[in-house]
Amino acid sequence: MKKIRKVILVTGTPGVGKTTLSQILASKLDALYIGITELVKKEKLITSIDDDRKTLIADTEKVSKRLQEILKTSEGNIIIEGHYAVDVVPEKDVNTVFVLRRDPAELMDVLEKRGFEGKKLWENLAAEILDVCLLDVLSACGTEKVCEIDVSGKTIEEAVEEMILVLEKRKACRSGIVDWLGKLENEGQLGEFLRDF
Ligand code: ADP
Ligand code: MG
After folding, report:
1. Domain ranges (residues) in the chain
2. 12-30 pLDDT, tens per residue?
């Protein structure tokens, strides 16, 4: 008989901590970790290079096929991490989707340290502020399996611990937990963050 396994997706805007937290979570759960960005690079699952952003464009059809193959041929818990994870893994195969959230001011620090600037920086901050990733996830998966984790002000260990509590059902799995737009508006900082680009 096939072992019961959990398929967990970890998603969110670039810089929220997906890769870091997923790898630690995977080691704690004894799960297989798959980072979509790494998989795409390693197996060259790409269509073309976006000159504007100087990034590789993943071929989502190839990525999706490859991930389904991995799901079919592996056993045990699996954590699949990437900002478009819900677009490349069929919803029926997924148990839990973590959407990591990070306060835009903190996210700006992380992205600047990573060398993001100009359009690329403001686009990603806007995406976090406007819940772009969360809305994508909700439209792909409904609300039931979707658990947002606000990592703002938390250490890596604390954030992972919260994910484990949710998986063990000792903490509620919820979405709609942050309101960056309202927060920035209250602080009079919306114009600072949502720039024209
Ligand atoms: P993503 O994969 O979502 O782009 P990363 O895992 O690469 O994000 O994390 C972005 C940066 O933030 C890294 O430098 C990482 O060490 C740091 N980081 C991640 N989570 C936390 C946290 N909870 N507290 C402090 N720094 C963190
Ligand atoms: Mg990453």
Report:
1. 7-193
2. 999 999 999 999 999 999 9
